[in-house]
Amino acid sequence: MIRNPQWPKYWPTHIVVRLATLGSLGKLKAPGTWGSLAGLLLYVVVYHQISLFSGVLLALASCYVAIGICGEAEKRLKKVDPGEVIFDEFIAMPFCLFGLKPYLGQHYSFFVILAAFALFRVFDILKPFGIKRLQRYYGGFGVVIDDVAAALATCLLMNVGMRIIVA
C-alpha cells in the first residue's frame, strides 16, 4: 500500500481544500474539465518554457504534491476521490503535451492542443486500457495515478499520431 505524505495533515483545512479544488473551479459544473483547462494554462505558462528534462522533473514533483494534497482533501471532505478535487487533472494535463513542443509553434498548434485536451478528457472519463483499475489504490495515490495514466496514454497517442500525420 502506498501511503499519503504526512506534511499536508498539518495544513489548515481551508488551504488543503482550496488547493485541491483549485479555488472555486472544483465547484463548477464538469469540474474535471475545468481542472484540465487550468492544466493547459499551466503547460503554456510553465512547461512550454522549459526543457523536456526540466518538465519531467517538475511533473514528478507535482505528482508528489498532488498525492499529498488530494489525499488529505479526500480525508477532510470525507469522500473517496471527490469530483470537486481537480488538482489531479491540473497537474496531469501537461503530461499530455510532452514531446509535442515542435508541433506547438506551427499553424496547427490549436488543433494539437484541442486534440490532446479532448483525448485526455475521454481517457479520464472512460478510463480505458486498465486505467480504471488504478483507482483502487488508497488515498492520494489512487486519486492522482489514474489521471497521470490517462495523460500518459494521451501523450503516447498524440506523439505517434503527430509523427504519422506530419511525416
List keywords for this structure.
mainly alpha; 6 helices; about 170 residues
Descriptive notes:
This protein is mainly alpha-helical and 167 residues long. It contains 6 helices and no strands. It has one domain (7-166). It has helices spanning 13-20, 31-45, 52-77, 87-92, 109-126, 139-166. Helix 2 crosses helix 5 (109-126) and helix 5 packs antiparallel against helix 6 (139-166).
Structural class category? mainly alpha
Provide a count of the helices. Answer: 6
**Measured on Cα atoms, how large is the radius of gyration?**
16 Å
Proportion of residues in extended strands: under 5%
Distance between the termini: 44 Å
Provide the number of structural domains: 1
Query: Helical residue percent?
Result: 55-70%
- Low-confidence runs of at least 5 consecutive residues: none
3D shape: globular
Q: If you average the pLDDT, what whole number results?
A: 93
Query: How would a crystallographer describe the biggest sheet?
Result: none
Order of helices and strands: HHHHHH
Please report the total strand number as a whole number.
Answer: 0
List the helices and strands and how they pair.
Layout: H1 13-20, H2 31-45, H3 52-77, H4 87-92, H5 109-126, H6 139-166
Helix pairs in contact: 1-3, 2-5, 3-6, 5-6
Summarize the entry for a quick read:
The protein has 167 residues and is mainly α. The protein has helices at residues 13-20, 31-45, 52-77, 87-92, 109-126, 139-166. Helix 2 (31-45) crosses helix 5 (109-126) and helix 3 packs antiparallel against helix 6 (139-166).
